[in-house]
Design goal:
about 725 residues, alpha/beta, Rossmann fold, eleven-stranded mixed β-sheet, two-stranded parallel ribbon
Length: about 725
Amino acid sequence: MMKQPNSNNIFERTFSTKKAEEKSLSRYKQLMLIGIFFGVLLYPFLFAGVIPLAIVFSIDKKDKQDHVYDFDYESFLQRRSSLFLLSALLLTVLNLFLFASVIPRGYLSCYLLFPLNLLHTTLRFGFSTICALIIGGLGTGSWLIYYASFVEKRKVISKEERQQKILNSKEYKARLKNKYEESQKYTEEYQQKYALAIVIKDVALRNKRLEELSKVLLLGTDEYGLPYILEFKELNQHAILPATTGSGKTTLIQVLIEHAAKFSMPVILIDGKGALDTLEAVREIAEAYDRPFRAFVDHGDMRYNPVKNGNDVAVRDKLIGLAETESVYYSTAAKSLLMVTIQLIDEFKKTHEIERSLPFIQKYFLPRNVLKLFADRILEKNPKLFEVKVESKPEKKSENKKKQEENHDEFEQMMEDFVDSLEVEIVTLYPDTIHLLDFYYLLKQNMVYMNEKEQDIFNRLFVRYEHKKDPFYLYVTSENLQNNINMLLDSELGELFQTMGANNELDIKEVVNHNEILYISLDGLLYSEYITVLAQMIVGDINFFCSEVYKKEKDQQEIKNVLVIFDEPSSYLNDDFISLVNKGRGAGIHAIFGPQTMADIDKINIHLKNQLVGNVNTFFIGKTNAPNEIEFWGNVMGTYSDIDVTDVITQEAGFSDASKLSWEGDKGTKRQVDRFKINPNRLRDLRQGEFVVYRTALNVREIPRIVYIRKPKVKE
């Protein structure tokens, strides 16, 4: 049989539950009664205590506003909870002592404030009353402040909820609506500091002030209405600026260039899309701050000699893109030819009108031209190099002559035949027409007239390959390199590399030494085959400059900050490019990579994106439309630890269920969760001029913030 529930047990449980609720409610009522009692008892001091409470609330609000972006930050009210309790206890003891021993009438006269002022007493409102009111108000206010601090510390609210409250606020929405005006809010003050610094007459003081200002860069206004300041030294650990068309990336690049221009820092901008508006914008910035500006473009008059600086290995590395083939065997031969050709030019430019340049490398990739150089040196010591003695064949004698000679004696005939056999003639050879292999062996026979260095180069180019099919093995197996250089110099770009006698020549070392702003651009659409090689040449020159810096003692030089911006790098990135750039960190290189999308880099090499991201420590993430990139950047910036708070939803008694109203009950749950530092939906909602800035270069934990990028000031 089914056991019937015990009605007594049900009654007891119901009664105990109600009793517990009554007990709980009575405790709450007791606290309320105690609070009301002390409020009424100390009401004059309570009114006075509101003043310090308001002051502390004001300080706390300002403190929260200054760190509104940092949800781990404890505000003034939370941090000073123990201090407020100690102050409250000390002031309470002080007030009791003063009331009991010093100015009891002063404390009692405080009650003459309305409504007890209607009573007729002997108490009078005087100086002691004011003292008692102030000290008593401070004591009561301390307890109020401590209570507010106690409540603030024990609030259970998630960081996400706190942030969402800010994002939904009227102030935030107003800033977003007027973001272009907001972005300029601190610009005038920022520029004013620079304007005041440059007019200081004391040179030492002016330089010191400018150096201080150069260390910080105002990017604009963040989403919370605060100025967003970046320490310029962070860019020495490199930055990435991924943003699609129409995101405002060019404006951000101009802000970076403006900062460098203000403080005479050299700038090198490599633009992979060749946009004329970028060229003009950079030129305007340079003119606004009176900085020398130079442009290397496909339609300009500046010339470039990529092999001017560096040893043979450095030059080989610069031109490695032209030497590479699918075969490692042939690529190695091409690299060897490059190195030895540079050695050849370096040796013979002392006596010949030649220079280290691509046109002369092209010329001396032809073995006949190389042999001519060696021939010129041999001719200095052996002028008869091309004069060769050749035995002449005696004429065949006619029958009549033979009959006449029969009358000669035998001895005379023998002597005549001997003399005829020794007849020789001098033949002059011409270096332009002599058979190439004969030319080589002629020079090899005269190697004794070469100096030791010349013999060494001759051996490296020819002699050591005699065991191959012919001694011109290096030239035969390097046709790909020769063809690439021929195509480059024969194209419309070829004129840019004709540096012999040029007045305007690109030299990275000069750009840095003279604090110039250099704009380098080739149209990646028109010159896609060459832009990678050109960019690699430029990076090679940057590394040569860095190597020169490393060679000098640090106490003998001042290491300059050099801003290098690689805009649209997907046009010229390769596996070795990033490692090449990283070598420049110790020499002051501040590198910025600005691709449109990371998918463009994936097309080059699937691992290159991770390599690039792994080598930067500052991120300026702009508008992107690709869902996978939004997720990618969310993962790059990582997560933070938060709490997930749930509330018990109850239906208030006495209301109809038809309206489906929800009411939060007194109970809930709390659990630890991980959330993205920047919600992917916020990345998806980025628009023009808005960038998520995430920094890891400094030894602080900066959370990502959306920044409204200001416009650079290019005109006075």
